[in-house]
Design a protein that fits this description.
Length: 67
């Protein structure tokens, strides 16, 4: 399920590649959460809480990988 596209930036580095994969994973997870909420499987509050949690994880990975 987790197929990542290749990173083609001119400023390629292993850290940027990892962050790119984290960003794609974030987008995939947000899509799944929105789908669950839209189908009534989770509440809006649960969706918001989960998206906020994974946003913080992405933000921390950016700070760690792209200093």
């Amino acid at each position: 399920m987790e197929s990542h596209s290749s990173y083609r930036g001119e400023d390629w580095s292993p850290q940027r590649l990892v962050f790119h994969q984290n960003l794609e994973s974030f987008a995939d997870r947000v899509g799944l959460i929105v789908g669950l909420q839209s189908n009534g499987k989770i509440s809006q509050e649960q969706a918001y809480t989960e998206i906020r949690k994974i946003w913080k994880e992405l933000k921390e990975s950016k700070g760690t990988l792209l200093r």
